[in-house]
């Protein structure tokens, strides 16, 4: 277990105790590649790299400030293209040590960007439509990306236990990553998740704890545990390691652009749970522009929610810049975060880029899952039904331009959310093994 | 009315490192004012210049998020547990 020390830090004329920093690795000695410091997204206050996530001054979210490798975009592009076929090809742009690819990891990423021509025809898209299919990751969701980064931070800070609050996918990703890297894991989920996610989270041998409540209750519990001696020395990937963890979503932006031939897409449709993924994809796109890896041009970011948990969509429609929390009630459980931490930033990004945030109800989600499966052979989890469903809705509303290049994210695998489609999906017929029976069933 | 307030790690510099402290008040606003009296500096960390809860702070009275209740006017019954928690956690 890491033990903590505190020191004095002077800021704005007042004495504050320094941020918690493990004895094993003080902020000054932590080496996480180009990561230089933690910076408050709200007030700009900077802190040394450490396992902290909220600004002492204003409670704002901390994020990584970098010294990125500028000046030789062509050399950087060649270095990336020569790298491994996983997220570590982007190590020069991530808060990870330079030798990260040699460490035990689930090595996620470099998932398929599927050119979805048949889906495009169904939706009336005349430009090019792509599905970024992150169900191809090691535990079948994009969470492997963020967890892989958090594992490197956990190593750097001397943690031996990995933990998280999860709607299911993250619990599985943490369990697998911990098993591969040799960490203990103890993860927390709402007690009523889909069986596929529960089994997948438990099978890796770590501790899995169901909490009697919804995701926001689980999250609150974890936030309290982290401040208690019971949680001392634990690396909560989406709490005290959140600034590092979130950066993993930037790799979606990097991959999409690289797979488009180092070009920005015109439009992206991204699911919103806490909103972190959307904000980090925007951050990744801006970094690629700043580094000269892609040509600068306008892009529009659209956020997608389930109607049964749509606080960000509602705020967008109503013109608000704050997000009023809701109590979730939707089959899209991986997006069922009623109090989305990054909601205000999602609103900023959607408005800045000329995008929008919209939502679809549970029936539309199921329809969209089937549409994607039928046209492209991709079985998405409910979150993928949300993005495809919202894409259709945005086109119908005239908000998404069907003549442009659009990338729609599928962040997880339908095998984990069978309950969503099982009631309306099954065998066409069950017959005796005879040709007559086949003919009689109208199948001949 | 006496309540028990759970203090997040980043505010414990104001409570001498204590993770829980007692406070008096019949509403959350009164409890926070009492906290400020006894642990000077904690108030401006939780409330903004307009006296509202900062947007990245969640406060619970027992199991209820005060944003679903009456905000700063949420009643704090005798013996209640009040938790102050950074909002920027979880999800992805």
From TrEMBL, chain B:
InterPro entries: Beta-grasp_dom_sf, Mopterin_synth/thiamin_S_b, Sulfur_Carrier/Prot_Modifier, ThiS/MoaD-like. It holds the Pfam family ThiS. PANTHER family: SULFUR CARRIER PROTEIN CYSO, SULFUR CARRIER PROTEIN SLR0821-RELATED. This is MoaD/ThiS family protein.
């Amino acid at each position: 277990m890491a033990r903590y020390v505190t020191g004095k830090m002077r800021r704005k004329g007042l004495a504050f105790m320094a941020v918690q920093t493990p004895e094993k690795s003080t902020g000054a000695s932590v080496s996480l590649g180009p990561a230089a410091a933690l910076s408050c997204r709200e007030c700009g206050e900077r802190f040394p790299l450490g396992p902290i996530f909220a600004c002492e001054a204003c409670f704002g979210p901390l994020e990584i400030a970098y010294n990125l490798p500028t000046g030789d975009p062509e050399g950087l592009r060649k270095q990336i293209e020569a790298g491994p076929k996983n997220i570590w090809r982007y190590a020069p742009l991530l808060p990870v040590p330079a030798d990260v690819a040699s460490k035990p990891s689930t090595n996620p990423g470099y998932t398929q960007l599927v050119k979805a021509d048949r889906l495009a025809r169904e939706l009336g898209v005349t430009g090019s439509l792509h599905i970024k299919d992150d169900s191809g990751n090691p535990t079948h969701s994009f969470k492997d990306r963020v967890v892989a980064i958090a594992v490197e931070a956990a190593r750097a800070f001397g943690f031996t236990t990995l933990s998280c609050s999860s709607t299911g996918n993250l619990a599985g990703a943490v369990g697998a990553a911990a098993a591969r890297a040799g960490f203990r894991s103890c993860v927390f989920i709402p007690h009523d998740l889909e069986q596929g996610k529960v089994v997948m989270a438990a099978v890796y041998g770590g501790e899995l704890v169901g909490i009697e409540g919804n995701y926001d209750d689980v999250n609150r519990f974890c936030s309290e545990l982290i401040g208690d001696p019971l949680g001392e020395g634990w690396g909560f990937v989406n709490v005290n390691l959140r600034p590092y963890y979130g950066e993993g979503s930037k790799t979606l932006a990097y991959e999409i652009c690289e797979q488009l031939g180092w070009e920005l897409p015109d439009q992206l449709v991204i699911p919103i749970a806490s909103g972190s993924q959307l904000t980090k994809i925007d951050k990744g796109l801006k970094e690629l522009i700043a580094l000269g890896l892609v040509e600068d041009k306008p892009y529009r970011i659209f956020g997608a929610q389930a109607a049964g948990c749509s606080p960000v969509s509602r705020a967008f429609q109503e013109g608000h810049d704050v997000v009023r929390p809701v109590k979730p009630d939707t089959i899209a459980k991986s997006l069922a975060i009623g109090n989305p931490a990054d909601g205000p930033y999602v609103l900023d990004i959607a408005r800045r880029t000329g995008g929008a945030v919209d939502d679809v109800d549970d029936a539309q989600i199921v329809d969209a899952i089937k549409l994607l499966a039928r046209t492209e052979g991709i079985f998405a989890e409910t979150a993928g039904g949300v993005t495809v469903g919202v894409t259709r809705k945005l086109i119908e509303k005239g908000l998404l331009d069907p003549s442009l290049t659009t990338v729609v994210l599928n962040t997880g695998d339908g095998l984990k959310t069978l309950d969503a489609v099982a009631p309306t999906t099954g065998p066409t017929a069950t017959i005796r093994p005879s040709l007559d029976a086949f003919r009689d069933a109208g199948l001949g | 009315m006496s309540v028990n307030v759970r203090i997040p790690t980043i505010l414990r510099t104001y409570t001498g490192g204590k993770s829980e402290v007692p406070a008096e008040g019949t509403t959350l606003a009164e409890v926070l004012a009492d906290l400020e009296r006894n642990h000077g500096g904690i108030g401006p960390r939780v409330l903004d210049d307009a006296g509202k809860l900062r947007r990245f702070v969640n406060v619970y009275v027992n199991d209820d998020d005060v944003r679903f209740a009456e905000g700063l006017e949420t009643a704090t019954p005798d013996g209640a547990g009040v938790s102050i928690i950074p909002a920027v956690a979880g999800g992805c």
